[in-house]
Write the structure tokens for this entry.
Amino acid sequence: MKKVLSLLLTMGYVLPMSVAADTNGQTVEIDGAEAVQIIQEGEDLVQYTYVEDGDHYKVNMYLSEYDRVIHNEVFKQNEKGEYELIRTTEFITDREHTHITSVENGQTNSFTIDTPDVDDITKEAQTEGLMFTTSNYADLGPWTYSFTSNYRQDIQGMARDAIAATLVGIYNWKAGAAITAAGIINAMNTDAFWVKDEVYYKYIKGTSLPRGERSKTTIYADKANQHYIEGPHYYDTYTTGWGPND
């Protein structure tokens, strides 16, 4: 299971909003009015709180293996200072789609969004050249740029916690960075954001056979990638046996 512990908190955004980051206290302020605080981090659970329009919320984000199934519990603080469960949301991501089911006030809302293939070495690349029976990370060359894709991610009707889960489950972002970015995206009151995905490969030296893939993703407010939101975030995958820790 990939780690979700590191917080990638960025100090300066091109968007017209002030951001202050305190990596020791793990607090981020957006527009001086909204704050995010990571209060518990783990491979299976990330718990955080945030303030929005004066209301205080707490989210439990439960992560499954490879973060392909994410279960969110959202609590709102009442007048007594106690957190009450107001919404649950489940995300199930497969090769082509992400299925989202949200339950709030007894009402169930389900919808499906497309899942870009942003993190896997192609099946052909994994099986090609099987004559290389001895795998060794030292036999791989440096990261070599291959191509760039630009994805539109629709988020119409999504709550803030759902946006964060989308970044974790689909684009393999670390939880801290996803939560920070979700606050900015939510404050923009937009129906979509854009993901620039730059793909690099590690090839077996002296060949054109890839055994490692790096996805470098950055999110923007526009298709032209002129209005930066957050990133870049790096996510590396390797053919079994070829990773640095295999």
User: Anything to note?
Assistant: Residues 1-33, 121-127 have pLDDT under 50 and may be disordered. Helices lie at 123-127, 160-169, 175-188.
